[in-house]
Amino acid sequence: MKITKNGKDFKNYTNEDGAINIKENGVILDCGSYSIINCGSDSIINCGSYSIINCDSDNTINCNSVNTINCYFNNTIKSRGERNVVIRRDFFEIIELKKGQTIRLNGWGIKGYKIIEDKDKEVEKAIKLLENKGIIKNGKIIIN
Question: Does residue 103 contact residue 77 with C-beta atoms inside 8 Å?
Fold first, then answer.
C-alpha cells in the first residue's frame, strides 16, 4: 500500500484492527484487495477488490470488484469491476454500480447521482467540437 500527500509519502495514519485510518484530507491512497479504509475529504482512493471504504465528501474512488463504499456527497466513484455498492449516508441511498460505470454523487441535500462519461470519450467529443468550429485541424491548433 502507498499513501502520499502533495507528492510525498504520507505517514500520518494509523492501522488499527486491519483498518487504515487517515486523519487528514487530500491524500492519495493506493491499496490492494481486502482493505478497510477510513478517510476524510478531497482524497483519491485506488483499491482492489473486497474492500470497505468509509469516507466523507469530495473524494475520487476507483475500485475493482465487490467493494462497499460508505460515503456522503460530491464523491466520484469509478467501478472497474462488478458488484460494487455505494451507500450514501446523508440519505441512506444504496447505488449498485455496473462494471465500467463512473458516477458523481449529487451535492449536499440533493439525492441521487449523475453518470459520468468516460474521460477519453469526453476528450474525443471536445476535439471533434473544436474541429467542427475550425479551431483544430489534423490534431493541430489553428491560429489566425
Answer: yes
